[in-house]
């Protein structure tokens, strides 16, 4: 039997050993750098937190975002408890590289909001809000641009406009209350789950107040589904890839804004056709009608500066979506308190 051996030269062995040593050194260097960055992250967090109540240590890079996404209510309740534990009225946490402060004190909240400007406090609204709402959004506007937009939307909230909105809400709410009574009767007076029923009522009031006759039944159905996707996306990680809830939410927002922009276009056409009437304001049935009336009056008035680009139909659709989102948030809070208080006062509930 013959055996053959491949003889390696001494330089080849030395090269292999040198490469192995180099990779070992690189791995050690990388590990040291990562450990150093993690240490800096913890030191930075602790330096900012100081004596403010909050987690003693944070998970590297992501912070407490898993708890926030998994159970938002519990997360914010814990922050509120921490804020209440001292006289400071605030608590701290760390979310994806951002040091956050939770403010529970009312007076301190007023001071903060009175100083919202680029060189003081920036209103974030949501950790991933710009990805969902877009950069050019009323939430992120400052200075003269914000003042100009507020001036232009002022006609939407005159006493006359508000009286129309109130009448719309009253009519829709009574229809839903009667529907709930009917459901309760057919359900042999067993308790009903109000969450989805209240949500339907809330969405219909907002949609009708803002864009009234310009949403068809099919459009409302698609709108509701897209709005559900949007709400789910608010509570997920910002993974903007196909199949993830955040991507679905972002695309849903684009469709919602496009739909609302179409409503603005339809309203503008309708208001323009009625502008020849002596009292065109009588035709206004919702918020977008009042807005388009004012926009058309500015267009006819040559003494006023030309309408800026951010008041195109698409941008108006985006702003209406902002209003609708804000209205949903405020209405949901009010309805939650209403249900909670009714449960505490059974004599009122029985009426």
From TrEMBL:
Q: Which InterPro entries match?
A: Cyt_P450, Cyt_P450_sf
| Ranges annotated as spanning the membrane | 20-40
Catalysed reaction(s) here are:
5-dehydroepisterol + NADPH + O2 + H(+) = ergosta-5,7,22,24(28)-tetraen-3beta-ol + NADP(+) + 2 H2O
| One Pfam family cited in the UniProt record for this chain | p450
- Gene Ontology biological-process entries: secondary metabolite biosynthetic process; sterol metabolic process
Q: Which GO terms describe its molecular function?
A: C-22 sterol desaturase (NADPH) activity; heme binding; iron ion binding; monooxygenase activity
The protein in question is named C-22 sterol desaturase
Taxonomic source organism: Stephania yunnanensis
Lineage at the top is: Eukaryota, Viridiplantae, Streptophyta, Embryophyta, Tracheophyta
């Amino acid at each position: 039997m013959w055996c053959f051996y491949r003889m390696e030269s001494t330089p080849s062995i030395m090269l292999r050993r040198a490469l192995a040593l180099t990779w070992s050194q690189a791995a050690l260097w990388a590990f040291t750098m990562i450990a150093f960055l993690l240490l800096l992250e913890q030191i930075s967090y602790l330096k900012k937190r100081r004596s403010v109540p909050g987690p003693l240590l944070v998970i590297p890079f992501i912070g407490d975002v898993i708890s926030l996404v998994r159970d938002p209510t519990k997360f914010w309740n814990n922050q509120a408890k921490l804020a209440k534990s001292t006289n400071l009225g605030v608590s701290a946490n760390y979310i994806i590289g951002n040091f956050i402060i939770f403010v529970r004190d009312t007076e301190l909240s007023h001071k903060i909001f009175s100083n919202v400007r680029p060189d003081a406090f920036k209103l974030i609204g949501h950790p991933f809000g710009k990805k969902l709402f877009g950069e050019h959004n009323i939430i992120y506007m400052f200075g003269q641009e914000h003042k100009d937009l507020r001036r232009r939307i002022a006609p939407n909230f005159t006493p006359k406009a508000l009286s129309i909105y109130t009448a719309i809400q009253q009519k829709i709410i009574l229809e839903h209350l009667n529907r709930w009574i009917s459901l309760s009767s057919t359900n042999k007076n067993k308790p009903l789950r109000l969450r989805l029923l209240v949500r339907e009522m809330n969405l219909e009031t907002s949609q009708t107040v803002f864009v009234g006759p310009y949403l068809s039944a099919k459009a409302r159905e698609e709108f509701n589904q897209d709005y559900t996707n949007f709400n789910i996306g608010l509570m997920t990680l910002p993974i903007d890839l196909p199949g993830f809830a955040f991507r679905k939410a972002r695309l849903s927002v684009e469709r919602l804004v496009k739909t609302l922009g179409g409503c603005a276009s339809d309203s503008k056409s309708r208001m323009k056709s009625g502008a020849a009437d002596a009292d065109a304001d009588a035709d206004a049935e919702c918020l977008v009608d009042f807005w388009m009336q004012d926009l058309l009056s500015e267009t006819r008035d040559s003494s006023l500066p030309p309408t800026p680009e951010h008041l195109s139909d698409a941008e108006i659709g985006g702003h209406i979506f902002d209003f609708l989102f804000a209205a949903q948030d405020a209405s949901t809070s009010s309805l939650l308190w209403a249900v909670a208080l009714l449960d505490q006062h059974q004599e009122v509930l029985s009426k």
